[in-house]
From TrEMBL, chain A:
<keyword id="KW-0472">Membrane</keyword>
<keyword id="KW-0997">Cell inner membrane</keyword>
<feature type="transmembrane region" description="Helical">
    <location>
        <begin position="299"/>
        <end position="318"/>
    </location>
</feature>
<feature type="transmembrane region" description="Helical">
    <location>
        <begin position="270"/>
        <end position="287"/>
    </location>
</feature>
<feature type="transmembrane region" description="Helical">
    <location>
        <begin position="30"/>
        <end position="49"/>
    </location>
</feature>
<keyword id="KW-1133">Transmembrane helix</keyword>
<keyword id="KW-0813">Transport</keyword>
<keyword id="KW-1003">Cell membrane</keyword>
<dbReference type="Pfam" id="PF02653">
    <property type="entry name" value="BPD_transp_2"/>
</dbReference>
<dbReference type="InterPro" id="IPR001851">
    <property type="entry name" value="ABC_transp_permease"/>
</dbReference>
<feature type="transmembrane region" description="Helical">
    <location>
        <begin position="61"/>
        <end position="82"/>
    </location>
</feature>
<feature type="transmembrane region" description="Helical">
    <location>
        <begin position="324"/>
        <end position="341"/>
    </location>
</feature>
<keyword id="KW-0812">Transmembrane</keyword>
<feature type="transmembrane region" description="Helical">
    <location>
        <begin position="185"/>
        <end position="211"/>
    </location>
</feature>
<protein>
    <recommendedName>
        <fullName>Autoinducer 2 import system permease protein LsrD</fullName>
    </recommendedName>
</protein>
<feature type="transmembrane region" description="Helical">
    <location>
        <begin position="144"/>
        <end position="165"/>
    </location>
</feature>
<feature type="transmembrane region" description="Helical">
    <location>
        <begin position="240"/>
        <end position="258"/>
    </location>
</feature>
Length: 348, 506
């Protein structure tokens, strides 16, 4: 009797473990890929895991993290949601806000630099919000496919960016801004964790709470799951669509502040290379564009993976073209894998 | 007597031990039009789907010209069906639509000229004249129906099934369709005509077959039965009296609807009292669902509603839910459930703001789990746990989840749009019990149902709709399934008949 009971319970445990493992693997296949990258780098170059490199990773990819967070909500809202405009919107916002800040600090040198930075943030968020609103209204009220309208507004942002700068790099502004990515931050012993590395993490946690613990987050997910049921349940689907794109625009605006902060001068075509890593991070995390399924943990691992991949490539001395080829391979591979997983899990 | 083309013997289909069609013997002869009648859920669709090979029978046989159906290749069956939902490509021309199944031409090249000729030829057979180059979307529903038939005829069938082809047609369009049916009859094509309108049966059919509760209850030449007899067969004699004990409605009006109109209905006026169950009867396509969705603010419409002492000229769903109106939709799969989400979220979807912590607004979901568990316990939902995906549940249990979502709301007005459609018998009785209990607590209930017996046993009052209009209102004393059926399916459309029906029931 005793042994029988025991064997039964171990079997139950085994099953529970197996089920948990299955759910984990289906939700987060990206973790395995992350492990592969880490193991490979562990053999090739131990410095990859040094505190200095981790901080520099977080700092130099901070704008990708922030852009990707906004994108998560767009993906989750379903309706094949995607925001292709965020790359160039970030670029354009960065250009305008940098210009504003440099004009302000040139005109009155006695002005509080933090006030100038806040004004710059305000400007770039406003621009992002306007683009987001444009996308959102087009999707919600005129039922234009998100892919098409955001592709179009991307062109708009790109054009504006070149017209505004005439093709020249914009720079200037208070020195305090670029210090945020180097010296200003939390001191632990001799290492400094700069604000540019901390802010994205704080925003990430904040938005994770918004997604999982607030009415709005739940409504976004339910809308993504089935917009018609959502409408029946008294959720204003068009409002959700508008807010989601608005949010994505605002986050592009916030991300824009990190470009003068971390790079310095803002090149007019800085927007060109921003979009793809953001989309890749969210997608590889396992959040599907069909909406209604996904959480911030997945997005977080997706972002982490892309960051490690980019950093690893740079570490190993690959140039930009090779890097892009690598992203291409990785994204195509994961998309196929995820499509297969989704089919298996939901029997669609 | 002409030769038999199609014959079924002891045809039976069961889904999970529930017989949907049981032991039906059925014969179609050359040039004979058979009417296939029955209430919703009697098994007509399943029967039809077996004949065209979409479903495999559980028992029994289907033979065409003496050959077993299994021996014939799928594409070669001498049978074609025009389904209730048209399957035309609205952006293509008439000729393209007619030839769509098998374009004339060599290999992968289409011979458009020949395609046009083909279309003309088959329209000639049916004796209709339509421009083969017209875009189908620009034509009326009647013409589209004819194109659908031409498309079916081109496959050269010996048996043609017409599934409720007249549901959306006007009187002249219907006449034209009957003309075509008579023409085809002369060409020795056997037809099965599924309809709800009994007058049509007498206009074109030769034989009547009635299904009720999956069994064949009548099979007779049209000349030997009366309309009254057919109705009796459809409804059955086994009308159990009310198995529910209804409460007394309150004189206070909970919802008043005045002059509601839209493209699918017109001139709707009614009121529901607190604690009253108002039944809405009507055939599919009578505008019942559209009416409910309009009242609930999901569709645009004109008119006013008066709810909880407030008059609305324009309203939206959020306002009404907040004030205490809820609706359980007809189409559970598309408008009810949230796939890929767990039961907990499905249950609390309509009232998430009730759980958010009051101190910090919109934040945290307190007592959400307990609440969801309560609903599951109360409605005895069979499920592995509240974290299970809703799609893992059976239809009846999914429906209980949706009903639970709304009833845990303590609504003032509750609209049920066919709550027992596609629900097994056990859950059906349970849901009925909840509706009656709900009304006893003072909630005004509007119950739309295709199952007339259900309506008669549960409603205090019944409104009958026909083609977007309210044609009759019956009090509980006057309930009679047969009469409701004949009012709902009667053919007269002119205004005077509407008044006439009212007079008749006064």
């Amino acid at each position: 009797m005793d042994t029988k009971f025991k064997s039964n319970s171990t079997l139950g445990n085994k099953n529970r473990f197996w089920n948990g493992f299955k759910k984990f693997s289906l939700d987060l296949p990206v973790v395995y890929m992350l492990i592969v990258v880490c193991v490979v780098m562990g053999f090739l170059n131990r410095n990859f895991f040094s505190m200095a490199n981790i901080i520099s990773m977080l700092t130099s990819y901070s704008y990708y993290i922030i852009g990707a967070i906004g994108l998560v909500f767009v993906f989750l809202s379903g309706n094949s949601g995607i925001d292709l405009s965020i790359g160039y919107v970030t670029g354009f916002s960065a250009v305008v806000s940098t210009k504003t800040m440099s004009l302000l600090s040139d005109a009155n040198p006695d002005m509080n630099p933090w006030l100038i930075i806040v004004l710059g943030l305000l400007v770039s968020c406003t621009i992002g919000a306007l683009f987001g609103l444009l996308n959102g209204i087009a999707v919600a009220k005129f039922h234009i496919a998100p892919f098409i309208i955001t592709l179009a507004s991307q062109l708009l942002a790109m054009g504006l960016c070149y017209v505004f700068t005439n093709g020249y790099t914009v720079s200037g502004g208070p020195r305090e801004l670029s210090r945020l990515s180097t010296l200003t931050g939390i001191h632990i012993g001799k290492t400094i964790i700069p604000m540019a590395a901390i802010i994205p993490i704080v925003i990430f946690i904040l938005m994770a709470v918004v997604l999982s613990k607030t009415t709005f987050g739940r409504q976004v997910i339910l809308t993504g799951s089935n917009p018609k049921s959502a409408e029946h349940a008294g959720i204003s689907v068009s409002r959700i669509y508008i807010i989601v794109y608005l949010l994505s625009g605002v986050f592009a605006g916030i991300a824009a502040m990190f470009i003068p902060m971390c790079i310095g001068g803002v090149n007019p075509d800085v927007g060109a290379n921003l979009l793809m890593p953001m989309v890749a991070a969210v997608t590889i995390g396992g959040i599907s564009q069909s909406g209604g399924y996904g959480n911030m943990v997945q997005a977080g691992f997706g972002i982490l993976f892309i960051m490690c991949l980019m950093s690893a490539m740079t570490f190993l001395g690959f140039g930009l073209p090779t890097q892009q080829l690598a992203y291409g391979i990785v994204i195509v591979f994961t998309m196929t894998l995820l499509g297969y997983i989704e089919r298996k899990r939901f029997r669609v | 007597m002409s030769t038999v083309i199609l014959e079924t013997k002891n045809l039976t289909k069961a889904f999970a031990n529930k017989k949907v069609v049981s032991g039906v013997d059925f014969v179609v002869r050359e040039g004979e039009i058979t009417a296939l009648l029955g209430e919703n859920g009697a098994g007509k669709s399943t029967f039809k789907n077996m004949l065209v090979g979409l479903l495999e029978p559980t028992e029994g046989s289907i033979t065409f010209d003496g050959r077993e159906m299994k021996e014939i290749k799928m594409g070669k069956l001498p049978i074609a069906a025009v389904h209730q939902e048209l399957s035309l490509f609205l952006n293509l021309t008439v000729a393209e639509n007619i030839c769509i199944e098998d374009f004339p031409g060599k290999k992968s090249m289409v011979n458009w000229k020949k395609c046009r000729e083909e279309a003309l030829k088959y329209m000639g057979i049916m004796n209709i004249q339509l421009d083969p180059d017209a875009i189908v979307g620009t034509l009326g529903p009647g013409e589209q129906q004819l194109i659908e038939i031409a498309k079916a005829i081109r496959l050269n069938p010996r048996v043609l099934i017409l599934d409720e082809p007249t549901a959306s047609l006007t009187a002249p369009e219907r006449e034209r369709l009957f003309e075509v049916m008579r023409t085809l009859k002369k060409q020795r094509i056997g037809m099965i005509f599924i309809t709800h309108f009994l007058d049509e049966v007498f206009a074109v059919c030769d034989k009547v077959v009635v299904l009720r509760n999956s069994e064949k209850v009548c099979d007779a030449p049209v000349t030997e039965v009366t309309k009254h007899e057919i109705e009796e067969h459809m409804v059955g004699h086994s009308l159990e009296g009310s198995s529910f004990s209804l409460g007394e409605p309150d004189p206070e009006v909970a919802l008043r609807v005045t002059g509601l109109e839209s493209e699918s209905f017109a001139d709707i006026n009614f009121e529901v009292h607190k604690g009253e169950i108002l039944g809405v009867a009507g055939l599919i396509g009578a505008g019942r669902t559209e009416l409910m969705e309009s009242i609930f603010g999901l569709r645009k419409c004109g008119g006013t509603i008066e709810f909880m002492g407030e008059t609305f000229k324009r309203w939206n769903t959020q306002q009404l839910i907040k004030k205490g109106m809820v609706m359980i939709p007809e189409d559970r799969k598309n408008c009810g459930i949230f796939p890929r989400r767990d039961l907990k979220e499905n249950i609390t979807a309509a009232q998430i703001d009730h759980f958010v912590n009051r101190r910090v607004k919109f934040f945290g979901f307190r007592r959400e789990k307990e609440n969801a568990q309560k609903v599951i316990d109360r409605f005895r939902v069979a499920c592995p746990g509240i974290e299970a995906y809703i799609t893992e549940l059976s239809g009846g249990n999914q429906q209980k989840i949706i009903v639970g979502r709304w009833l845990s709301h303590s609504p003032k007005v509750c609209m049920f749009d066919d709550p027992t459609r596609g629900v097994d018998v056990g859950s059906r009785a349970e849901i009925g019990e909840y509706i009656v209990e709900l009304a006893k607590t003072g909630t005004a209930v509007i119950l739309v149902s295709s199952d007339l017996n259900e309506l008669v046993s549960m409603a205090h009052r019944i409104i009958v709709m026909r083609r977007g209009r309210m044609v009759s209102e019956l009090m509980r004393e006057d309930f009679d399934v047969r009469r409701i059926l004949s009012i709902a399916s009667s053919q007269q459309e002119d205004e005077s008949s509407v008044g006439g029906n009212h007079g008749e029931n006064a």
